[in-house]
Amino acid sequence: MDVLARRDLFVTGSNPDSRRDYVVTLGSSIPDLLGADNAKVVLRYVPDKLILVPSSLDEYLKALGAMSWNNLEGVAVAIRDDINNEVVPRWLQISVSSAPDGDKSVGHHDIMLEDRQPKWDNAALLSRLRRY
To answer: Which pairs with CB-CB distance under 8 Å and at least 24 residues apart come from 127-130?
Structure first.
């Protein structure tokens, strides 16, 4: 699946209050990713003009799971880039975690990526969030 077809799986709607900052948190999993039973994905974002329809995240993650990946970091970067392109949030945090089946020496593998629009800052809002 090419990147444009993958991104088309996201369904968005209008932000009901684009004048205010608030945090949206969505969580799901990707089955059978890179040999792990389930990779957990948590998406937190501050919407700008658009919000993500939650059910479309599952469809998107299923498509990611069917693709070939070299590492979990590549998956996390793809999610960040795709969300930034389709939803264009003010602030975005992606975490992807798995317990690799193939490597018993590693109990878990976690990646956290964060991004924000230039000049956007709401330290008071972000300081209230539970740490990664």
So the answer is: 129/23, 129/44
How do residues 84-128 score in pLDDT, each as one tens digit?
999 999 999 999 998 766 556 667 889 999 999 999 999 999 998
Which two three-digit tokens encode residue 120?
Answer: 């956007």
The structural domains of the chain, ordered by start, are 3-127 (3.30.1130.10)
Tokens of 84: 């930034």
Write down the pLDDT at residue 107: 73
Q: How far is CA 34 from CA 7, 49, 66, 103, in A?
A: 21, 34, 10, 11
Give tens-digit pLDDT for 61-86.
Answer: 999 988 988 888 999 999 999 999 99
Q: Are 21 and 46 in contact (CB under 8 A)?
A: yes
User: For residue 10, which of 52, 43, 67, 62 has the smallest C-alpha distance?
Assistant: 52
